[in-house]
Known about the structure:
Layout: E1 3-5, H1 8-16, E2 23-27, E3 41-45, H2 55-67, E4 73-75, H3 77-83, E5 87-91, H4 101-111, E6 116-120, H5 125-138, H6 142-163, E7 169-176, E8 181-182, H7 186-193, E9 196-198, H8 212-218, E10 222-225, H9 232-238, H10 246-249, H11 252-255, E11 259-262, H12 264-269, H13 275-286, E12 299-301
Helix pairs in contact: 5-6, 6-13
Amino acid sequence: MRIVSLLPSATEIAYALGLGDDLDGVTDGCDFPSAARTKPVVSRSRLALDNGTSAADVDGAVREAVKDGEPLYALDAELIQRIQPDLILTQDLCRVCAVPTGQVTDALDVLGCHAEVLSLDPHSVDDVLDDIVRVGERTGRATEARRVVDNLRSRMAEVEHRVRGLLPVRTFPLEWLEPPFSGGHWVPDLIERAGGEPVLCAPGAHSVALHWPDIEAAAPEVVVFMPCGYDLAAAAQEAKGLGAVAELRATPAWRDGRVWVTDATSYFSRPGPRLVDGLDLLAWIMHPDVVSEPPPGRVTRVQT
């Protein structure tokens, strides 16, 4: 089977199901596992950004493109035509994250390509697990998919057992800095499962732009900075601006030294198998006495 994946989370799912050899096209953001970097790239971001681009500049570039009706991703139609995929994995959740389904189907119509398009649109942890099963069923890997999902559910149950009965910790997931955004979709779900009470967000709801006074008034006990698409090094660099926000400094989280930075790209931004590693991170951040410390390189504390 010839598969093209147009989002990093789908690429991770494909590899988890043993479909690496069937992947014939990925995006420029597909970097896990490392073998994904060797695949032909059929989709690239149109945004001219680099490691020095601030969160405010990224937000401005995205808003400008959306206002002008410009696509945020460029499909290599010629390469897709050469690949002649049987299945294309795409999404409709976020046009900033990957190519939306409509753009894909329009391109296929022009190319005369008859690939099946499977759109993934998760809003909760259970939705993510269901998508793993869907990919498995469409690719002849249903047994492998059930095995992967059973393992992930077992790991989640272990975490939930450890935090059961503990006082929920009021936790705010900060998904963007300028402007501040709350975490959405599966992130509040993860917080609840990890023994927390989501602040200024709800399971399944979209990420929303906020004002810093709202965050101060909510008085979170823990703040987890998980800027969408940032690894730990980039997030830690961006987090240097947190101390300049007076409203954040007024929160119990800042006062008690419970502001954390995470590798959001790996453990929160992508709705794939590694969300369960994100659950482990959150549980340790909120309840370090009952949950094992995660491996190095996944989370660090902000100096307050």
